[in-house]
Amino acid sequence: MPALDLAAGGEATAEVEAPRIRVTPLETPGLGNHSHIATDGTVAVVVDPPRDVDRCVALCGRLGVQVTWVLETHVHNDYVSGGLELARITGARYGLAAAEEVSFAGQRVGLRDRDVITTGSMAIRVVHTPGHTDHHLAYVLGEAAGGRPLALFSGGSWLHGTAGRTDLLGSDRTEPLARAQWRSIRRLAEELPATVELHPTHGFGSFCAPGGTAGDALAELGAEAAHQPALLLDEDPFVRQLIAGFIAYPSYYPRMAPINRSGPGPIDLRPAPEAAPEEPARRAAAGEWIIDLRPRTEFAGAHLAGWINIEGGDFFATYLGWLLPWGTPVVLAGEEEGTVAAAQRAMALIGIDRPAAQVARPFATWTPGARLRSYPVVTFADLAAARARGERPAVVDIRRDEEWGSGHLAGARHLPLPDLGDHLDEVSAMAEIGPVWVHCAGGFRAAIAASLLDARGLPVVLVSDTMASAASAGLELRTGAEEG
User: Fold this and answer.
1) CATH number, domain 279-373, options 3.30.70.20, 3.40.50.11060, 3.60.21.10, 3.40.250.10
2) Which CATH class is domain 3-258?
3) Full-model pTM
């Protein structure tokens, strides 16, 4: 195999079999992704880094290693890459498939199937694994001195219990890429020992990982093979099963690859200007989104008219990016600077670069003297009690299609959260009879929906509860077709 002995360096903390070589994952929970840092104690190779590369730099600093290579498995469709910027900061070489069309071609090393990168005491073999994308690459880590393979960085190819989705490049590519995915995973299984550790980029919680296992525990390929559909099924059944498992993905996804192909600029995490008490109302009237990061129950108990509640946490960026009209200015409001800073960092990972302003102080000081709004927060037991009294509350289920199909409340109306804005006339008609009761699978998404409806002046009730509680409350559950 041809060698790219463009020497330089590698290091990182799931210790693989070679005594000095380690792999440390760097998790981005809200996106369901893992970056990986492979080290030999002196040099480091970073695979699929997130945009907030300060985390990579800090980790490598703690490990006492120099980054010599930054590698991308593919042009990402689900987040803005930090690869190019990390290479600039560290002086590392930046590796990406040679076939990828990017505007920064002169700054990357074009990689091809069976190329070998050597750095420090590590060797990394490039494997073309089309499927998730046409030019997807996997990387096999081993010792430079003829050692056997130790770890596989599989990106969006072989995932825990599944394979990366193949529909992100368009419907005409979905099936051909699914067939390529089957062949790629089988090639990896044939070429690599069962003892090789599997380190995928996409994991549980990523929309790029359809129907995978509910955990990302470190495992060897031999153990993973027992749960890998591409190895258990023939090609046609695999393709049918994989495609059938695709669920709706966030609306910002199509914007990520163009950003990554153009060469993302550095992330800017400087705090946004602090908004004066009268400023948010003016901004909201101008069409900006004012995001209240407080817990759903606090927001429901007292909030400002027109503000939207997306709780700070792992899934903040996913749903902000899914719902926000792209390009709309955002103001972040939280009671602590750390909460606002975390939300700013999270949204930058998907290309919403900076808030227009922020409010980072106690709620009572946000807009003193302003008239506050509120709405009830209830459980499914409360809904069951209301129905037992003969009431007929209008119930909206904002879960995804596959969640609805697996079991939903009798009499509920299904309006997935991303589609809610297209059905405001229908919801308004429901609200003329009485408050609209909104629920999801746990309360997080329902809280967003309730705040969106409340911002339009509609009466709402937030059901903050789990679907398991619906059954235990005695509510009738149905499966299958839409309610009338």
Assistant:
1) 3.40.250.10
2) alpha beta
3) 0.93
